[in-house]
Amino acid sequence: MASATLVCALGIGYVMQYGLPGMDNRDEARTRPMALTDITPTSSAAGDMPRREPETGVSARIAEGTHSAKAALQSTDAPAPITLAALEDVSPGAAPATPDMQSVQSVPDPACDVTMSAEPAAGALVKLTLDAPCNASERLTLHHQGMMVTAATGKNGHLAITVPALAEKALFIASFASGDGATALAEVPTLSLYDRVALQWRGDTGLGLHAREFGADYFGPGHVHARTARDLGATARGEGGFLVSLGDGTAPDALRAEIYTFPRGAAHRDGTVALSVEAEITAENCDHPIEAQTLEIRDSAALRTRNLLLDMPGCDAMGDFLVLNNLVEDLTIAAR
């Protein structure tokens, strides 16, 4: 029953995200070239080091759309389809066939049921608690509004994780490779008070989301990124936004995400938050294409997605960074 419920939930999510076949999708994503002037190769050393000239062959393409646009990333942990047993054609008056005891499926053990709860928290966050007694130390995928991240249960099958909501009616789906899983729903009415931008990718891409608030310099006060992520307390103190990193980076080919949140409803000053996506050139991604996707909620508007395909420079550029300035629009903040 739990597996059937999970498959139904995944199906509902598919219709919400992609639409039904045959529909005229006027918001279908379009791909256009990204100007090379917006890809700035920089050195990983101090800021006064000379900048690299753009590499020949470095190119990027982006596609954007509303929430109906197809996600660029797909989970390898999707549940297996359920196949219904065929019914035999029994002639009138014929004796019923004796069931083959080896073909009778065992009844699922209630002690192995997967359960998940969702509790709204401050900052338009949601605390998820999952218990899967028979899936201890096992990898799973969390799905929410097109965002997918890899997580893993502990030795007792327990997982507790906090996820930024991307919808006021926030549906979360947890799925194991075996097809086991669970769903949970949370009401997040405070989401309208925040602007939220997420970047998601798969594997070791070297990608990262950066926010420079109100003219902040790189690596100075007001530059929010994975190494200086802040927390919800910074928002409560009126210092600015915060960043949450999700996804088990130790798992192979993991789905990962970084989500930046700014408290639009509590802004004390006018200004701009400069947003950029940066990619470090590493041995794992050099001379290879990488894919990513952004998901954005701004000023209570509908969720918008943009897909990125970036051809990375050759391996002689390892250690440098590419700065993608126009993949994500800057946030324009007005004091309240």
Tell me what you see in this structure:
By secondary structure, the chain is mainly beta. It has a domain at 34-72 and 192-333. Helix content is 7%, strand content 38%. It has helices at residues 2-18, 232-236, and strands spanning 30-33, 39-42, 59-66, 115-121, 125-131, 139-144, 147-152, 158-164, 169-176, 181-187, 195-202, 207-213, 223-224, 242-246, 255-262, 271-280, 289-297, 304-311, 321-324, 331-333. The strands form four sheets. The protein has a seven-stranded antiparallel β-sheet with strand order 1-3-18-17-11-15-14. A hairpin with an 8-residue loop joins strand 14 (242-246) and strand 15. Mean pLDDT is 77; it is low at 11-39, 43-58 and 66-92. This is Translocase. It comes from Sagittula salina.
Strand order in the largest sheet: 1-3-18-17-11-15-14
SS element count, helices: 2
Distance between the termini: 49 Å
Q: Strand tally, please?
A: 20
N-to-C SSE series? HEEEEEEEEEEEEEHEEEEEEE
What's the pLDDT, averaged over the residues?
A: 77
Q: Enumerate the spans where pLDDT stays under 50 for 5 or more consecutive residues.
A: 11-39, 43-58, 66-92
Q: Which percent bin holds the helix content?
A: under 10%
Q: Note the beta-strand portion.
A: 35-45%
User: How is the main sheet built?
Assistant: 7 strands, antiparallel
Shape summary? globular
Radius of gyration: 23 Å
Structural class by helix and strand composition: mainly beta
Protein name: Translocase
Organism: Sagittula salina
Quick recap of the structure?
The protein has 336 residues and is mainly beta. It is built from two helices and 20 strands. It comes from Sagittula salina.
